[in-house]
Amino acid sequence: MDPLDDFMTTRPPSARRPLLGLTVLVVEDSRFACEAVRLLCLRSGARIRRADSLEHAHKHLGTYRPSVLIVDVGLPDGSGLELIASCVQATPRIDVILGTSGDAEVESAVQAAGANGFIAKPISSLSAFQNAILQHLPQDRQPPGPRLLTDETVSPDIIAYHDDLSHVANVIDGDTSTENLGYVTQFLKGVARSVDDADLDTAVCALADKFARGASTPDDVISLGAMVQSRLSQVGPI
User: Fold this and answer.
1) Across the strands, what pairs with 26?
2) Residue 137 near residue 95 (C-beta atoms within 8 A)
3) Any alpha helices (H) in the chain, and if so which ranges?
4) Is residue 65 within 8 Å of 90, Cβ to Cβ?
5) Alpha carbon 67 to chain centroid distance?
């Protein structure tokens, strides 16, 4: 354990750092969303561990038990709902289990899986992030006295956005069939909303609707890939 980890796990919570002593495992394949959670944890005093798939999450959970588990619903190797449901049934149970997605319509499914709550993307508000965790923590894990409220938000580095676009571009380049479209649209919806890209969000939602109706085609995938490449060219090489 390095000195910073030791500080974060041994110091009691405070008004400015209400999540001191907590370890957050975020299971998220979006670099942009994961970076946002990292910044929020840093400002709140929590230690963060990251997994980008169900496989990696299970490896983490086989080694230690985090205080807080935040799971993206759409993951490259399956549904985050399955991980939520299995962790809800585990003994001892993780103190706080939260689901997250760029699609607010999945909140009911997250609740049905047994999660304590749901965080819609973009995850940027410090107070909202802290509230989502603190309201479900046992009383003995709460910070003493009133908590310092703030309207602070976090903005991940543009490199994380570039990495997410590159990830989608690689997935589409490798397979222009519609088989992966469910994962791709769910992933891109979260990215679009995180960076407030209304045009991309609209296009992705329309394509997701076509996919749900069984009406999507390989040409739709190619068109989506062109939108992603256009945004990569705007961001420029990293």
Assistant:
1) 50, 70
2) yes
3) 3-10, 31-44, 54-61, 80-89, 107-112, 126-134, 158-174, 181-194, 198-212, 218-235
4) no
5) 16
How far is residue 205 from each of residues 5, 102, 143, measured CA to CA in Å? Answer: 40, 11, 40
DSSP string computed for 72-87: ESEETTEEHHHHHHHH
Give the integer Cα–Cα distance in Å for 72 and 101.
6
- In whole angstroms, give the CA distance from residue 129 to residue 152: 11
CATH number of 3-141: 3.40.50.2300
**Tens digit of each residue's pLDDT, the chain (238 residues):** 444 454 455 577 787 889 999 999 999 999 999 999 999 999 999 999 999 999 999 999 999 999 999 999 999 999 999 999 999 999 999 999 999 999 999 999 999 999 999 999 999 999 999 999 999 998 877 777 666 677 899 999 999 999 999 999 999 887 777 878 889 999 999 999 999 999 999 999 999 999 999 999 889 989 999 999 999 999 877 6
> Could you give the CA distance from residue 101 to residue 118 in angstroms, rounded to a whole number?
8
- Would you state the structure tokens that stand for residue 175, as one six-digit string? 């397979």
DSSP per position, 189-202: HHHHHHTT-HHHHH
Distances (CA, A) of 222 to 88, 128, 208, 215: 39, 37, 14, 15
Q: At what angle do helices 181-194 and 218-235 cross, to 10 degrees?
A: 30
Cα atoms found within 13 Å of the Cα of residue 204, Cβ hemisphere only: 24
